[in-house]
Structures are given as structure tokens and as C-alpha cells.
Design goal:
mainly alpha, 4 helices, globular
Length: about 110
Amino acid sequence: MTALTDLHEYLTSTLAGKYGDVVLSGVLDVEIADQAGRIRPKYRIDPDLGWAAHLPPLREAILRRCARNLSLQKLPLGIQEGEAQLLRVGGRDGEIRRLEAPYLRMAVG
């Protein structure tokens, strides 16, 4: 399976039909690059082995990142109006943090 196919399946119930392959591919590229900058090099996607060889928790984190990216595009300021208040939607997703935590680069000095 390709990353794009997995993303289509992941978003099927919510967002997939609203975006074409070009938009989804762009979001996927951005999120894969962002994750690659945060995790240790040995856990990055190997270009020779591809998406299928990427560790399952990191694949899941990328799919969640993409879903979050697409849903936040409608809220450019990251603020959503509730019934009686304004809600800040931005910030880090706890589930993404949990999935990526064992693979993150350690900051030294």
C-alpha cells in the first residue's frame, strides 16, 4: 500500500471526499517531512523500502497529522467559536505525541 492509499482509507469517514489527490499528497509530504525532522534518523522512512516498511506507530502518527492539518485549514487563526466562548483549537495532539515519543531525537546541550 502507498501512503496516499492509507490516507484515503484513514480519512474515508470524515475528510477524504473533500480533497483531491494533489491536496492530500501535498499535506502528506509536509507531514512526513515534519516528522522526519523530529524523529531520530534511523526511524525515518527509508526511500528504498518505502511507506510499508515505516514503523506502524509512526505511520499512524503521520495519518493523524494529516487529518489534523486538513481540519485546521478551515480555521486559519486556530480559533473556533463555541456557544458562549472562543475555543483555541491549535496546539499539539496528545495522541501524536504519544505515538512519536519513543522515536524522537533527544536534545543535547
